[in-house]
Structures are given as C-alpha cells and as structure tokens.
Amino acid sequence: MKEELRLISVLLRYPTSELKELIESIQAENPYIYEFLNYAKGETLLNLQTEYVKSFDLSDKSTLYLTYHRFRDDPKRGTFLVKLVDYYRKKGFEFVDNELPDFLPVVLEFCSYMDEATALEILSNFQKELSQIEEGLKGLGSKYTPLISYINELIKREVNQNA
Asked: Staple partner for 150: which of 9, 32, 119, 154, CB 3.0–4.6 Å?
C-alpha cells in the first residue's frame, strides 16, 4: 500500500516531461493505477497537462487542496494548515517543495512514510473531502478518477474492518 500511495502522490502532480517518461516505464498490477497509466501512456504531454488542469485547477469541486473542501476560505483553514505542518514535523517529515501541507500529493507522500495504520488514520480523517474530489472528477469525466477512487476504496476497507 505504501508504494502505491507514493506512486499516486507522484501521478497526481502536474505533468512534466520527466513525469511522462516515468509513466512510460511504470508497470502496475493495481487495477485503479493500471487504468490511469493505460490512459496516460497513450497521451501526449500536452493532453496530460490539459486533463490535469481541467480536472484539478478549473473546478473547486475537485481541487487537490483537501482543506479547501472542508473550510473553503474560512480563517480556520489557515489554523488547520499550521497544525498540519506541525504534525508533519513532529513525525520527521519536511517539505521539499512549496506546496501547502494539505495538497493531496503531499499528504499521500507523507502517508507513504508512515506505518499503514497511521496512513489509513490520516486518510480517513479526510474521507469526506476525498469523496467530494472523487465525485467532482466523476462529474467532469476525468481520467484521474481511478486514482482517487483507489484511495477511497482503501479508506472504506479500513472503516469496514474497524466496524
């Protein structure tokens, strides 16, 4: 699971030529990841970038900034982001880029370094937001939907196991 979360964290970043090259070399058995890779391998970089922007940048229903779904522009969002940075640092995780700590690829990368129980707990705390993103992507017919669907499937399995 941890390797899959790390891979999805990479696949959910804005497509670059380096990412396109990486996509071409990846083999995946996971059906959700396979579906996305199958699409991405057959597309040009420009088409991948267009799909990314359509999916995540033009609709607030599918933005990858998790706290936006919870707080919108409420000042409580800033407080939550500060607490999230503190939590990451206490766990020994430092940021390597300038993204906000609630950017889904950052959250997934962090989770990929945690034990499975901690990772699932963190993702479960964002279950509502991840479901909103999935629904937003489905509404757009986005090719990125399977990646978010897989994360939601992991959370559902965890919730059902603990019920």
From this structure: 32
H helices of 55-103, in order, are 66-71, 76-90
Report the SS3 class of residue 42.
coil
The reported pTM is 0.91
CA 9/CA 32 separation, integer angstroms: 14
Question: Are the beta carbons of 106 and 100 closer than 8 angstroms?
Answer: yes
pLDDT digits (tens, 9 = 90+) for 58-100: 988 999 999 999 898 888 999 999 999 999 989 888 766 688 8
CB 21 within 8 Å of CB 96: no
Looking at CATH, the fold of the domain delimited by 2-162 is given as TorD-like (1.10.3480)
**What is the distance between the alpha carbons of residues 37 and 45, in angstroms, rounded to a whole number?**
13
Cα dist. 21→26, 32, 43, 44, 56 in Å?
9, 20, 12, 11, 22
CA distance 10 to 147: 11
